[in-house]
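#data-curation
PF: Archiving a pair of folding outputs for the training set. Convention for this channel: one message per protein, sequence first, structure tokens after, nothing in between. First:
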Amino acid sequence: MPTIPSIEFMAAKVQETARDKVARAKNMAFAFDIDGVLVHGDRLIPEGKKVLEILNGDNELGMKIPHIFLTNGSGKHEADRCSQLSAILGSPVSTKQFIQSHTPMSALAKYYRTVLVVGGEGFRCREISEIYGFKDVVIPNDIVAWDETIAPYKVFGPWERAAAKPRDFSKCCIEAIMVFSDSRDYATDYQIIMDLLRSENGRLGTISKDPTSQAIPIYFSQGDLLCPTEHPVPRMSQGTFRLGLEAMYKAVTGVELKRTIYGKPERATYAYAEDVLTSWMENIYTEKSLPEHIYMIGDNPESDIAGGNLYGWNTCLVQTGVHTDDENDKKNPATMGLFPNVLHAVESCMRKHLGGDFKFEFDVMTHTFTSADMVAPAKGRASRRNRHGSISMKTAQNGTGNKGSSGKVSKERRSTRGGGTWSGSSATNDVRERYYNT
């Protein structure tokens, strides 16, 4: 029986003859904002799917290009959000390459025991906080269930009451406030936060004589004023909630609110992202190193671009989200320029770094292999990465590929696109055609 080369083998052969280009590819990386760049809510931005196919191996080198996801999104656990994105984008998204705005806040669990967690749908942020390691998590509904007069304008439904965990909050101290996600009830959340900020060391029902010395700390997971959604006009985000709270606190106490903000464009978030990227490099290449050339691709000049610029990354601004103008942002201009979508941005960066003729598909028909290059099919062989991050493929055992009437392999089947994991149906059948009919 004739033997055929695996995709992994062919990619490795290509990489051996292009070692300089491989080294340059491993010295670049992408950091993607998500909403307004790859998706709008639950709706795919079509160019995002193709971008991830390219970066997951459908390129002329057949190798993975390092990339991470850096979003100010929040309100879901990282595993849930990655599963959702994988389904929308058609490519695997790992928690090891994914950073939400509240991901770095998990480190605070070792400093605080009893915390108020604000924002998000239902009780989801309580669950996330507990997974992060916070021992005693309180949410606003717990407090309302204890004393409904604390929020006079709230309509407290039976399902909320049933899921709440009330206690006597006049006898316990809340040590910190964590705004994990966008508030779903501004009036109630504002009232409870203001009560705690003005209290004596986080004990409800008290008012401190000196709010500056006795105020408990408050943390915000991000500072975006606007967020692109499926609505045609971007919606208000956590940054507007914070600005309103700061204005209220200043008006009532006469002093500025001291707070800590995570997310883009804060430097701490970009430092955390570099740690994640270094670990992801080890995951795909078994080399723990940080690429010298990192490209931040985002739609929001105030967060994505400003933060990337301040941290010394290359930046690309796309027109599919918050920024829709036909010119680069004047206050926070992207260093690589303005692009209509994420695909244009990625192709431009890769051609600049890897050469103007770099191809964005791995075409098995362009490579010639001798009989000495053949490898026997291995039924059921599991996928594995080689040292360049390219993906092996289970060798197809059935089928002879698709031919047109002329006997040539159809043009549509000449490249392999499996969204980061090589699919056996198209690429292997092309190879079978090549070697069974010569």
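PF: Second:
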Amino acid sequence: MISSQFRRSFFRRSCTWCQTNRSTLDRSYSNQTSCSIDTIQRNNLTLQFSSKIHEKTQTALRYSSSNANGNSSIPKDTEKPIQKPKKVTTLSMAAMKRRGEKITMVTAYDFPSAVHVDRAGVDVLLVGDSCAMVELGFETTQPITLDQMIHHCQAVKRGAPNRPLLVGDMPFGSYEYKDVDIALKNAYRMVKEGGMDAVKFEGGSKARANIVKHVVEGGVAVLGHVGLTPQAISVLGGFRAQGRTAANARSLLDDALRLQDAGAFAVVLECVPANVASAITEALEIPTIGIGAGGGTSGQVLVFHDLLGMLSHPHHEEFVPRFCKQYARVGMEITNGLAQFKEEVKSGAFPGNDYSPYKMSKTEEEIFNELMTQNGAKENASSTSLSKDTDESEQLNLYGNNNTGST
């Protein structure tokens, strides 16, 4: 319904066409009379609203009919195609830097972690060789092998197959040789077997830049890495911040420029002063990804386990790097959950009836009890065909996948 106030305002404007006095028009409403233009406008407005009501009614009828016939429940004129997430590429990362849009990167090593990273919409997922320390418990990143890295890359690929750019860390001893074809061959394995979109090399020396150039020319995208390079821990004398003197800072800039000239699509800057990282970022055309390098880089990367506090515990918070902000304390919840599980098992509260879902039929239960009370129950149970004839198998979905088993 149209309010009387709206009609009065609208018709007042309309009646100026025939120069009808507004005070006369007001009186005409009280006397149920109006001028000719007033009548025409009112009729036209009524027809317009009737037409809209008719259109909405027809749409509702089509919608109802499609439901009754089992067709699409959404009218065709309102259907919106489901859009797949747009894949992040090396080119889109360069565009993000030009736009001033920060790039997000997370280091993860397995299927469930990759699923969470993908769902969060993170731009880049790095399968880092830090897996050696975080997942496998080694003291450094050096022990992990290429085959082990490929194993973890495959799991991550299954967890995040579409949107994020996937980068595989080339492990220590897989690319440093003078024969640059060795690096290219192993990079091919990371792409073909591991499912990675790119690989990462540590270091920016002339020799390393030559390797990067050869691999890029061979068709594999490369992410560079300067600053603290954990694979070179024996040379660096430990996990130490880099670029804290003017000469060392300048050397880092030279390394980054060499990697850019060699064809790297981006460079990781690890554990360097914020002003040095900002200067390198401004000097480079390609993006920089910082970790413990301040906020002046093109993006940031943290390890999945660190940023979620997977190992957080009141007695060993030293496991978390100083540059890492914890966005959750998942480790505390994990510890509490495991402790509660232990307590409920010890007390007999778990599983209980609620988590013992598989039952025998009453008939089979009576037969089973009778068999167990007889002498030689095992022999009778093995010779009888009752259980074999009436046993039923149940399809189970285990461990969160669609594979089925039987019991």
